[in-house]
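Structure in, sequence out. Go:
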């Protein structure tokens, strides 16, 4: 699968990190139209790649939702419209929402997520372990997967506490019937350790650095496996 990432090529400053412009976009409200554009482009590209690089099952596309987007009343309608227009099946889309965003208003989050689940859209809690969510809410969130935050994966096998946290998140996910993805895998050692722990999926520089569409095409043609 893929995760859609955004970068800004500034005419004077060159490549601008999302860490620099996303907070400003959130503050000004521009994150809403930016987020709509990202979702549209991600679904369009995923649908195109699914048609030209067929796999069984089809690869899935992950798209992040910001706090402002998640609070939009017409979010479900917008996502439905994009999926229909781009001819992408809802089950091939994963929407990622950070733990901290969900916990801003847990009851409202549950309501919004239930609407997405009724469409067969997959829901993922991003950066899990950093937002201090209540376990009583976690079992009520209608999500499909958790993502272990990179900060815990970085010192996997080196720091006993971080290693224990990763093991606990994986065990918790299995107990709740959720899939678990580890973020920020950069070494073979981390990859092998996570496989031994029973982690379902991983992402990070070990597999590939972020790529523009053309370079991604080259990777798809190679059909890599790990």
């Amino acid at each position: 699968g893929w995760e859609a990432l955004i970068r800004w090529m500034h005419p004077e400053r060159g490549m601008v990190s999302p860490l620099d412009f996303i907070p400003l976009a959130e503050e000004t409200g521009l994150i809403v139209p930016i987020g709509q554009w990202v979702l549209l482009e991600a679904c369009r590209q995923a649908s195109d790649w699914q048609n030209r690089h067929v796999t069984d099952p089809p690869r899935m596309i992950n798209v992040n939702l910001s706090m402002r987007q998640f609070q939009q009343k017409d979010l479900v309608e917008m996502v439905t419209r994009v999926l229909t227009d781009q001819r992408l099946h809802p089950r091939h889309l994963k929407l990622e929402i950070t733990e901290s965003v969900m916990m801003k208003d847990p009851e409202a989050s549950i309501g919004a997520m239930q609407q997405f689940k009724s469409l067969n859209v997959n829901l993922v809690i991003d950066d899990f372990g950093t937002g201090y969510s209540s376990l009583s809410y976690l079992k009520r969130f209608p999500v499909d997967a958790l993502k272990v935050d990179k900060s815990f994966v970085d010192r996997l096998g080196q720091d006993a506490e971080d290693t224990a946290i990763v093991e606990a998140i994986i065990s918790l996910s299995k107990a709740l019937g959720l899939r678990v993805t580890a973020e920020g895998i950069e070494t073979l050692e981390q990859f092998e350790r996570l496989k031994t722990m029973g982690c379902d999926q991983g992402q990070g520089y070990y597999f590939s650095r972020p790529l523009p569409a053309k370079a991604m095409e080259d990777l798809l043609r190679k059909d890599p496996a790990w």
